[in-house]
Write a structure and sequence with these properties.
By secondary structure, the protein is mainly β. The protein has one domain. It has one helix and eight strands. The strands form three sheets. Strands 1-2-5 form a three-stranded antiparallel beta sheet. The chain has a three-stranded antiparallel beta sheet with strand order 6-7-8, covered by helices on one side. Strands 3-4 form a two-stranded antiparallel ribbon. The longest helix is centred in the middle third of the chain and has 9 residues.
Amino acid sequence: MSDYGTDVDGDGLYDYLTVEMNVASDVRVGDATFDGYLYDESGNLVAFADAAAFVDSTPSVVQLNFPGQLIYATIMSGLCGKTSRSSKRRPGLICPAASNAEQFTADAL
C-alpha cells in the first residue's frame, strides 16, 4: 500500500490524497468495490473514497482518491491540527489518520 498527493489540474495544489493498494484473489474472482474512510485523530470522518475493480489471481492496483478539499477543510477547521517538523518534510499541519501523505500545508492544497 502506498499513498501520495495528486495534482490533477497542474496548479501545484493536491486535489486528492491517493491511496494505492495491490489486490488479488484466488478464492473470489469478479467485480469488487473497495471503500476507504479517512478519520481524524478524534475519530471524526474526514473523507470517503471508493473504487471498483475486477479481481482475480493476477495482482492489480486499486486507487482510492480522497478529496483534498475535504482534508484541507478539516485541517483549517482545527480537527487535524498538529505541527510537524520532520527532516524529510516541510513544517506544516498533519492529519495523523493518514500514513505517508498526511502532511498538508495551507499552500499545498
